[in-house]
Amino acid sequence: MMRRGTHRIGGALLLIALLPLTGFARPFFFVLSEDDLSEPNQPSPADDVSEFDDFPEADSQPDYVFDPGSWSPIFEPDTNFGNPNPSDEGEIIYYSGVKKMVEASEGESRLMEEAAAEIQAAAEMGNPQGQSAMGFLYSMGIARERNEGKAFLHHYFASQGGNMQSKLALAYTYYRREMHDMAVMLYSELAEVAMNSFLISKDSPVIEPVRIHIGAEENKEALRKSRGEEDEDFQILEYQAQKGNAAAMYKIGIFYYFGLRGVRRDHAKALRWFSKAVERGEPRSMELLGEIYARGSGVERNYTKALEWLTLASRHQLISAYNGIGYLYAKGYGVEKRNYTKAKEYFDKAAENEEPGGFYNLGVMYLKGLGVKRDLKKATNYFGHAANAGQPKAYYQLAKMFHTGVGLKKNLPVATAFYKLVAERGPWSSLSRWALQSYLKGDIGKSFLLYSRMAELGYEVAQSNAAWILDKYGERSICLGEFGFCTDAERHQRAHGLWWRASEQGNEHAALLIGDAYYYGRGTERDYERAAEAYMHAKSQSNAQAMFNLGYMHEHGQGLPLDLHLAKRYYDQALEVDPAAKLPVSLALASLWIRRNYANTFIIDVIDSLPEVYPMVDEWVENVILEEGNATILTLFLCLVTVLYLRERQRRHAAVQQQQQPPEEAPLVR
After folding, report:
1. H/E element holding 213?
2. 156, exposed or middle or buried, with CB in 10 Å at 0-12, 13-18, 19+?
3. pLDDT by residue (tens digit) across 610-632?
4. Which residues touch 462 (CB under 8 Å, ≥6 apart)?
5. With 80 as the cut, is the pLDDT of residue 151 above it?
């Protein structure tokens, strides 16, 4: 089992959050000191500016070029998609099988069997994509027995054939087992592919990971903001833009350019809205137009125009434009010749104003010694600032430094973690967009299938989402097992496995649910000690419910030593972390008071029997109390009991006071 924690690496030169996703997965911090810098006498590399290739000469490519076997032809058909190759029978059978698998995900068990048979046929023909899909089926236990060994073998052979998703699945398998020497090799390769896709993919490089739940409840606000062009806020913004609002034009352009909030990336629409905004004096659009012309996104590449737009934007004090101008000078694009001195001047201006791209490019200059004296310490510092701002290219540079020992002492666990961050932003992350879109359309089975595929690849948010869907919608027959629909035991076991993987990656809600599974015996054998371990894991992430549960277990001696003092401490901590826990904590403290003062009495027996009585009480509440009129009678009864309790308490208090009073002195008899 992997243990999440804080890797202490010294002082405050570098502070980087390795899990910057919103939700329950908490940040994983690395702090770097002088001691972690490697020896300065490293050989200087050649005058190589490839690290600056933000706007490479290569033409834009769709995601499926970087991700062989991608499911994009099924979810986002492209008329230019050249596969399946008519001469490649395995490829034809593979895509036919995947299409049937997606259609069967809503509970068509017979169709799923047909899909699995076709995918297996493709795999047996040596098709890497078919082997990868078979690995997925064995891993999840869909239409095949759940067999991690067979899943691993299929992914291994698929990865040898060039399937990137299988490489990601293998990398995650090694990562979980802390086999960092194996994991780092695969993650580094995948991170490099992801970096290339950032630069020349015509599809969206920004895949916003959306957690579709908060605890046990649906994350309605996040889902509302992910509906793309169907979102009411987006439609209002679009209406304002159509009426001539320049700021709205700019925002609409941003949505289309980066593919934000569920909007499908569209460079042509972005260009149109930015151009309209500039006509109405919106300066921020000038900078984006400069980038569009430099990249050749939706328009013919023109570095001269790019420099003109970026220069105009810089005159309006748009700081990131300085970084763009510096880049053009570093590459010699749109200017007379390459000029590192001028490039550094612009990068410095950008960095002085906390622009992540400026930090990153200064890091490259000092790492490579381009126009400056090579200084690995400064390079590391600049990359650290850029990484703190969420710059994925900076994560990649730091990963390479930890991996190779250039500038930083070799550290494979840290390098693996950084590479994983970058690799998970590769073109295969489109699965997240399709899963979310399916969920929003009500195609729960399809969404579950896609999140399950991502879960196998190591995405924590997907693991959490898939498990939550199983718990919430599992009875709707979306869970398909080896023979048709999952039994309740199979469904609980699959959800348990998904929550467990998410908890390993720092998801506190997942750790809490794992504890509940062991405590109540859901999908696994009841085990109070393992339940306590899971609750401790969630407690370490400041989860109030876990603290309360640990207090209860100490109070009753379940999986933990019977210790009323520790129980009270955990109850108090739960209240400190979450003031909303006042009522349950108050009741628990009352239970502790009774346990101390009325030990070995029938009252304690009654309290201890409540968990067993609860299911019957719950049924009684639903069938009796909620009947019309019965609630009023119960309320009056509870009021009567409360009055009797208060009167008894007052009587005891008066008796105690009377006992504490000194006896009156007898009058003297003369």
Report:
1. strand 213-214
2. middle
3. 555 444 444 544 555 445 455 55
4. 431, 432, 435, 451, 452, 453, 454, 455
5. yes
For β-strands 213-214 and 29-32, DSSP reports them as: unpaired
CA nearest to 488, candidates 498, 477, 499:
477
Task: Give me the residues paired with residue 14 across strands.
Answer: 32
For residues 331-347, b (16+ Cβ closer than 10 Å) or e, as one string? Answer: bebbbeebbbebbbebb
Give counts: helices (H), strands (E), the chain.
Answer: 31, 5
What token pair was written down for 165? 């998703």
User: According to the model, what pLDDT value does residue 129 have?
Assistant: 95
Instruction: Select from 257, 266, 260, 202 the least CA-distant residue to 228.
Output: 260
pTM: 0.78
How far apart, in whole angstroms, are the C-alpha atoms of residue 211 and residue 213? 6
| Partners of residue 17 on adjacent β-strands | 29
Contact 129, 91 (CB under 8 A): yes
Q: How many CB atoms lie within 10 A of CB 44?
A: 10
Both tokens assigned to 204: 């969206």
Distances (CA, A) of 418 to 192, 264, 363, 365, 469: 12, 28, 17, 21, 29
Tokens representing residue 663 in the block? 């006896």
Helix (H) or strand (E) holding 450: helix 444-457
The letter for the amino acid at 524 is: T
Give the pLDDT score at 631.
Answer: 53
* Percent of the chain whose pLDDT exceeds 90: 38
Asked whether residue 210 carries a pLDDT value surpassing 90, the answer given is no
Helices assigned H by DSSP within 44-108: 63-66, 72-75, 89-104
Distance CA 134, CA 101 (A): 11
Q: Cβ(286)–Cβ(316) under 8 Å?
A: yes
Contact predicate 232/225, CB 8 Å: no
Structure tokens at 191: 């991170």
Distance CA 239, CA 279 (A): 18
N-terminal to C-terminal alpha carbon distance within the chain:
89
